[in-house]
């Protein structure tokens, strides 16, 4: 007997076509039902439920996400009356160790001094900005920091002991203070060893087509083109056990030198603040909160393909100026911060 396998092949093809058609119908239905399920990542529409950890963030049977029940901060400011609120366009929150006054002073006298960039600010309708520093607490350093705070009125000193693994709470506290006491378009979270090229920053925020298209709902900065894998290396500084984060990858997040957030995004993040068990890596945690905020039609602007905008491979011993860069890390010497600022003014 001779079997005609062509019949079976045709049946298989028809079944496969029906499955594909059915899947397409479901996808189209979802799009029509709620376009807000999707976010714009560098002009590519993607689902935030794509499997790189968001199922855990949004909630699934395997990893249910429970909205934090305790919305009461277990952290507070120790110098509340010494801080001048800001009302303007761009607000910086700089994470700084309480003992690192030299670093703070180097920023205050360089790129943190808005009066040095009057010409560039006028180019963008008089845009203004202000830099604030977030620190923790140490017995032997608090009095000096309190005096520094009274003089400059730009420090947020928290009552929790300085601890690298407690930075997430400090960031949340800074976000809440900013929302409650300041008006701004963009909030930038960064570190005290980062140089900001203010003219290039203005150009990015006020000329970049992607940011202009998502002006009031944008997440930008040193966000990598692909999602980052969670580290399981016991000897890594960024080791996270599976008990804390079961997924193999993190959602999109920006590294510490540049988190640029629209005010609306920060507002939507606030209900998801977890004061009891925040994720230990503050930069990753910001990305998680952005994801949980689920802002409709939000744009995530990642670094360009050449990675020229946010340079994070610098050396503390060398000082070289990068013409196209918005940030440079690590810059810890005052003379270097001054040199880079001077070059940004004339370039």
TrEMBL record:
Transmembrane segments: 20-39
Keyword tRNA-binding: no
Keyword Membrane: yes
One Pfam family per UniProt: Galactosyl_T
Cellular compartments annotated: Golgi apparatus membrane
Keyword entries, A-Z: Glycosyltransferase, Golgi apparatus, Membrane, Signal-anchor, Transferase, Transmembrane, Transmembrane helix
EC assignment: 2.4.1.-
InterPro entries reported in the protein's UniProt record: Glyco_trans_31
Record GO terms (molecular function): hexosyltransferase activity
GO CC, one annotated term: Golgi membrane
Topology within the bilayer: Single-pass type II membrane protein
Classification via Gene3D superfamilies: 3.90.550.50
Annotated GO biological process: protein O-linked glycosylation
Enzyme superclass (EC): transferase
PANTHER family associated with the record: BETA-1,3-N-ACETYLGLUCOSAMINYLTRANSFERASE (PTHR11214), HEXOSYLTRANSFERASE (PTHR11214:SF376)
Family: Belongs to the glycosyltransferase 31 family.
Name under which the protein is recorded: Hexosyltransferase
Lineage: Eukaryota, Metazoa, Cnidaria, Hydrozoa, Hydroidolina
């Amino acid at each position: 007997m001779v079997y005609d396998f062509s019949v079976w092949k045709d049946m298989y093809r028809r079944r496969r076509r029906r499955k594909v058609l059915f899947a397409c119908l479901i996808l189209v239905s979802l799009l029509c039902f709620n376009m807000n399920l999707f976010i714009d990542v560098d002009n590519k529409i993607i689902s935030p439920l794509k499997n790189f950890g968001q199922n855990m963030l949004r909630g699934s049977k395997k990893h249910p996400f429970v909205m934090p029940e305790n919305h009461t901060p277990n952290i507070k400011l120790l110098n509340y009356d010494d801080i001048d609120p800001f009302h303007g366009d761009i607000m910086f929150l700089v994470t700084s160790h309480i003992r690192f006054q030299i670093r703070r002073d180097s920023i205050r006298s360089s790129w943190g001094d808005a009066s040095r960039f009057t010409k560039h600010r006028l180019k963008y309708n008089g845009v203004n900005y202000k830099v604030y520093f977030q620190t923790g607490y140490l017995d032997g350093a608090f009095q000096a920091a309190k005096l520094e705070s009274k003089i400059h009125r730009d420090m947020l000193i928290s009552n929790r002991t300085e601890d690298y693994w407690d930075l997430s709470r400090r960031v949340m506290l800074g976000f809440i203070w900013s929302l409650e006491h300041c008006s701004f378009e963009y909030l930038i979270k960064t570190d005290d060893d980062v140089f900001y090229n203010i003219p290039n920053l203005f150009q990015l925020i006020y000329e970049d087509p992607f940011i202009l298209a998502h002006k009031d709902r944008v997440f930008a900065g040193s966000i990598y083109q692909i999602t980052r894998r969670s580290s399981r290396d016991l000897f890594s500084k960024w080791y996270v056990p599976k008990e804390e984060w079961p997924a193999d990858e993190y959602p999109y997040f920006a590294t510490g030198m540049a988190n640029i957030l629209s005010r609306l995004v920060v507002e939507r993040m606030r209900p998801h603040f977890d004061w009891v068990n925040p994720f230990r890596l503050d930069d990753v945690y910001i990305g998680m909160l952005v994801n949980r905020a689920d802002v409709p039609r939000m744009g995530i602007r990642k670094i360009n393909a050449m990675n020229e905008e946010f340079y994070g491979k610098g050396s503390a011993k060398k000082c070289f100026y990068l013409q196209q860069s918005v940030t440079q890390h690590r810059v810890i010497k005052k003379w270097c911060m001054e040199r880079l600022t001077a070059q940004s003014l004339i370039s």
